[in-house]
Amino acid sequence: MSLRIRFYVSIDSSGQMKERVLSVAKSLRDGARAFGDEVKFVHNGDFSTPGEDVDVACCWGIIGNSSEIVSAYLTAGKRVLMFDKALIRRLGNERQGHFRVGIDGPSPIKYLMRTQKSWERWESHRIEMKPRQMLEKRGTIVFCGSSQKYCDFYGLGDANDYAEGLFNQVRDKLCKADLIYRPKPSWPGFRQIQGTKHSGPTQNLLQLLKSAHVLITHGSAAAIEAIVSGVPAITLGPCAAHPVAGHSIAENIMDPFFVSDEARWQWACQLAWCQFTADELRSGEAWQFLKGELEATA
């Protein structure tokens, strides 16, 4: 079945379509054309209601009015693809221009583990999977937060209040825990939370993980970096690390869950099929895969 796709391209401060997002939209158009599918891209400010002639809406990240677009299309019973920065960044391949794709939301969790994938794509990233980190004494508890727009998208309330409530849950179990609050590095709205240390954008996450007992997040890709680095993670939302993480502060904070090497390796192989390059979109390879996942998860 041919699909009609509309890509809502976000704009920059001058009112022009963002070049990177526009480039992805054009690549998707070229790749989809080979399968008889039509892609049109428009200014995201042109959105008012879901298009009756649209089967799949696309947008980039949780910025601007993307939350409104996603909610409206899902409510109308239509599908959504959300593009954003790569899931695997500082670990090795940001320079190659990868970006992630979520179905019906920012996370790829809907299709991440649906079918078993082979190892070749993950291996091409040449990323070292480190063994479980063992510390001589209990390390730090790192919470990686998100922007206010992310919290609004998932109904979490005020981003700083959410973080503070989470730290209170940790203190209920570990009263002397060394707590570190790492808000989203590009988000300017954070405030210092009493009893925690702040980790800012100039501090390298991989260095921070070297002394970590566990990393906690709702949906940050930082959990992926933790798991690959051998550090346990607790994910409280639809995070791509969800299949290999703990999901409860009360149950997992004292002795964090950590999967077997075999399960972690298979998860990584799955993860590699959740991010693509513009060339893969342009050739049709990525679109063929994503179209199949849209059909399988309908």
In short:
The protein has helices spanning 19-33, 66-75, 120-123, 148-153, 159-173, 205-209, 222-228, 249-252, 261-271, 278-283, 285-296; strands spanning 4-9, 38-43, 56-60, 79-85, 99-103, 140-144, 179-182, 197-198, 212-217, 233-235, 275-276. It has 298 residues and is of the alpha/beta class.
Give a structural overview.
With 298 residues, the protein is of the alpha/beta class. It has 2 domains: 4-108 and 275-296, Rossmann fold (3-Layer(aba) Sandwich), CATH 3.40.50; 140-269, 3-Layer(aba) Sandwich (Rossmann fold). The chain has 11 helices and 11 strands. The two termini are 13 Å apart.
CATH topology of the largest domain: Rossmann fold
Q: Give the overall pLDDT as a whole number.
A: 94
The tally of domains stands at 2
Strand and helix order:
EHEEHEEHEHHEEHEHEHHEHH
Number of helices, counting only DSSP H or I runs of 4 residues or more = 11
Largest sheet: 6 strands, mixed
Q: Could you give the order of strands across the largest sheet?
A: 2-1-3-4-5-11
CATH level 1 class label of the largest domain: Alpha Beta
Weakly predicted, low-confidence segments? none
Radius of gyration: 20 Å
How many E strands?
11
Secondary-structure-derived class = alpha/beta
- What is the second-level CATH architecture of the largest domain? 3-Layer(aba) Sandwich
